[in-house]
Amino acid sequence: YSRRPLDLHMISQLLWSAQGITGAAGEKRAAPSAGMTYPLKVYVLAGSQHDELQGFYLYHPSGHKLEKLMSGDLRKELSKAALGQDVIKNAPVNFLITGTYERTSRRYKSHGKKYVHMEAGHAAQNMYLQCESLGLGTVVVGAFYAEDINEQLGLASGEQPLYILPVGFPAD
User: pLDDT tens-digit profile of 51-68?
Assistant: First the structure.
């Protein structure tokens, strides 16, 4: 990736494509969800290229808002948890998709975990398509130590990291 930062509009569009509200009553999202259980959360880790946005954020689909959870550039730590993959450390922004299996398993029992994984795939695919339309590059990273990510980022109990999507402009 180049070191060029993404603008806020691009980050906003990527978040919306993953979990944004699409229904007039606020009950539907951009990615389908089994029984509308919506077990996913999307986080943003913005690197040092983003002076005003640098840090770790949770996306709230309701209101299309970001909540700052931590300050600082956490890409190096995230990269370590992902087997040292440089793509994470070098991307200006990383998106982390997590899921809470229990939200869907309450309704769908043993099928719940499968449905959460399917929903994460839908959200990631939407982000891929949005990246393409914005002239950005991404790759889905699934090789990581979930426990390390949970510990470093202070994720809630029962919340499972599913994907990391490093995003940036292709290198010149």
Answer: 889 999 999 999 999 999
